[in-house]
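Fold this sequence, please.
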Amino acid sequence: MSVYNWLCLLGIPGMLGGLFTFIGVQVKQNRAVKLGLQAILRDRLLQAYHYYKHQGWASYDDKQNVLNLYTQYEVLGPNGIMQRKHNEFLALPDEPPTAGNNLQQIGDGGHVA
């Protein structure tokens, strides 16, 4: 058998093995990036939810921003509890309560109109 035949016999399977290893590593890295991005989006959505829920309202622009984040989050995979929180967020009023309607208690026991 010639050197060329040996190289073909051993070289092609070696190259295919290396290619499959490379593809496997890329798949794992892509999955890790996807899961990491999903975790960051989830964290940001939860922060926004708690902030605006505590505030009691969210402007149209705030809702658009969160909607854009949620749309991309939803594409990345299962979202569990986030759908319920997202719906609660969208149900918040678009404007702050007027001074005559609500008194908001602040930490030192006083009231702000």
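Residues 3-55 form the longest helix (53 residues). Confidence is low (pLDDT under 50) at residues 105-113.
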